[in-house]
C-alpha cells in the first residue's frame, strides 16, 4: 500500500497513452481527445508504431522512444499485449498505469498463467501500481486531467467519487454536470486488482481538496484494510456508499461483474455502519446525497423547520421526517408571534409553516428570515408548488438573497424543493448556481436531510464512552478452548446444548440444565433427577429441524410421559427414514417462561468480513438479511446497545413489553459476552442460540448449536476489526518497587485518561503539546482512546490506588503511515510520578511493538526544554539531533534489524 506512489497517480506531471489512435471510437482515440480537451498542462505523449502523430501530437513508436519517463501511463491496447507493456513501462521507470482492457483473468499464456497474474507479477517486481484492469480511467478536474473514456469531463469541486462500475461513473457524471456539481477526483476502479478502495480512502481522507467521499461498491477484497481506512477517513469527512447486490441474485451478479467475493448484504451494512460511513440504497438517494454534500455544511443539530405554500407537500415532508426517525421542533412563542403578524390568518399556526398558496417572493423571504432568526432550528426546508402567480424564479431569487444576507447563514442548513417540471426548472437551476441544495420532491429533500442526521448520529455514537462489562462476568478462554479442541480431536463438527454448556458457562453465559440420554430408560432417570416438568428432544444427524418429526416435547410432568414421548419420537424418525441414526435423547429442565420473551442470537461466518453477530426474533427459519440486525465483533457495551437499538428500530426485534421481557442492559451484556467468546475461540465457526429466554436481568440459553472449524484458523486474519490485543498486557515494576500494568488503551479508559491529561502540570502540558493547550474536549479524547489497533497504538501505565480504582500514570502513543514505513510517537507521564522509570518502560514497550510489526522507522520530536526526554531516547538507542531553527529535538530509530 504505497501512498507515495498514489501521490504520483493523483498529481502526474506527464502522461503517456499506449495504443493512441487516430481512428474514431477507438479507446486510444477517445483518450487522446479527452486529454487534449481537458487543459492538462504537462506533456501528453502518444505511443503508437502506426502513426507519426495522433490528433496533431507527435507520436513515439515505442515506450523506449519516449523523451522522458511518464508519471502516468494509460494502456488502451487489447488484453493480450498488456502484461508485456506493463513490464516494459516498469523497466522504463513509470510508476503508475491505468489499464482499460477487460478479460485478463480469462486469458492465459503458454505456461497456463493468466494474463492478470502475469501483469501483476511484472508490476510487483518493479514497484509499479495499476488502476484497473477494466477501468474507465480517472478525471482530476483541478489538474485539467481527463484520463478516461467518459463521454464528458467533470467540473471542479470538493467531492471525490470512486466506483467499481464504469456505467455508474458515466451516469453520475452526466447528472452532476447537469446540476453544476463538481468533483475533486473521479475514479473508476474497474476490477481493483491492485489499487483498491482502502488506499484511495487513505489518500482522499487526507486530501485537502476533498470534503466528502462517495463510493460505489460491488465487493470488498481487503476487509481489514478497507474498514481501517474508512474509519480513519470518516473521522474527518463524510463517506457515502452505495452497495450493489442487496438481493441474493444481485449479489451473484455483482460477483460476476468484478470477480469479487459475494458476502451477505446485511453484514456489509453492519461494516459500513461500524466504520462511520453512511449507506444509500439507490442512485436516487445517491444523487440527493451528492446534492447535499456539494452545497451543505455539517449539521449542528437535528431540528428541522418547514416552510410551504401548500398543505399537501408539507404533510408529505412531515410524514417522511417522522417515519424516518426525525424530529419536528415546536416554534418558540416569539417566532410564532412574528409569523402571526406577517402571515394571513389562515396560516397553519405551527411547524410546518404553511404560508398560503398565494404567497409571493416577499412573503417567502420574510418568513425565511424569521425562521433563520430562531434558535429553535438547525435546518430549514423550503417547499414551493406551482402557483397561478407564476413567481417561481422570483421566489427562488428572493430566497437566495435572504440566505446570503442573513447573519446566521453559516449556522443553519437550508434545503429547497421546487415541485413541478417546466415551471420549476429555472428555479432549481438558480439554486444550484447559488450552492443551495435543491430536490425534485418533498420526500427527496427530507431523505437528504435524514442522511445528514444519520451521519451525525453515527459519528456521535462512535465517540460515546462505552460502559464496561460487569467485572463479575467470567471469561475463561483456556477452559473453553480446551473443550473445543477436545471436540475437534474427537471428529465432531457440531456441538449441541449438552456438549456446549461448559464452554458457554466459562464466559458467564447461563444455559438450561441439560442431560444426554442414550436410551428412553436413561431419559426417565435424568428427568426424575432434573425434577418435573422437563423438555425432551430427539438427537439424530438425519434431522435438519426437530419440529419436522415432532422431535421436541415440552412440559412433560411424569416418568410415564417421558417414556412414551421418547419411544414415540424414535419410532417417528425411523418410520420416516429406516436408515436414520438415533444418537440419543436430550432432557432439559423446563424454564419458567411466564412473562419472559424468546429471541434468537447467532454468529455467522461471512465470506468477506468473517464472524458476524446476528440478533432477531426466535424461530427455526430466518434469513439474516431480512430477519436479523447484524454487527461485527469486537463489541463493547455501547456498540451492543447500538445493535439492540437498530434491531428494535428496524423491527428485527420487537419489545413485547412482557412483565419479565427484554432488559437493555442484560441483552447488551449477553452480546458483549458472545463477542468475547468468538474472539477468544477461533475454533468456533458458527453459533446459534435459539431460543434465548429473556426474563429481565436473567437471560438463559435454551438451545445451543456450535459449529466447529475443522482446520486451524489464524484468529487475527479471520476478524474484520482487530480486537483489543490482550496479549500485549504486561506487569512491570517501578524503581520504588510498586507494580504497574502496561497495556493498550481501551475506549472505556476515556474518563481516566481525561483525568490523567488534566493532572499534567502546566510545564508538562507545554512540553507535551508544544505550547499552551486548553483542556481536552470529549471529541478529542474519543479520538485518543478509541483507536484502531490495526494502524495505531497507545500504551498506558496504570496502577490500582488506595481506593481500589485504576489510575493512569503515563501514556505513549504512535500513529503510523499506511505504508507501515514510519511511526511517530509522543509520550507523557503524570507529573508526580516522574523519575520512577515509567517513561522508559513505555518507550521500550513501544519499540518492541513496532519492531514486531515490521515498521521501518520510529521517530519523535520534543522541545528544547525537554532534555530528559532526549536523554532517555538516546539511552534507548535513538539518534538524537537538534534543530536550532525550530528549537526542536529530533529522535530517530531505525527498526529494521535482524531478528
TrEMBL record:
Q: Where is the N-acetyltransferase domain?
A: 740-898
Q: State the source organism's domain of life.
A: Bacteria
**Family matches, as SUPFAM superfamilies:** Acyl-CoA N-acyltransferases (Nat), Glutathione synthetase ATP-binding domain-like, NAD(P)-binding Rossmann-fold domains, Succinyl-CoA synthetase domains
SMART domains in UniProt: CoA_binding
CDD domains in UniProt? NAT_SF (cd04301)
Q: Which InterPro entries match?
A: Acyl-CoA_Synth/Transferase, Acyl_CoA_acyltransferase, ATP_grasp_subdomain_1, CoA-bd, GNAT_dom, NAD(P)-bd_dom_sf, Succ_CoA_lig_flav_dom, Succinyl-CoA_synth-like
Q: Where are the transmembrane segments?
A: none
This protein's name: GNAT family N-acetyltransferase
- Species whose genome carries this gene: Shewanella schlegeliana
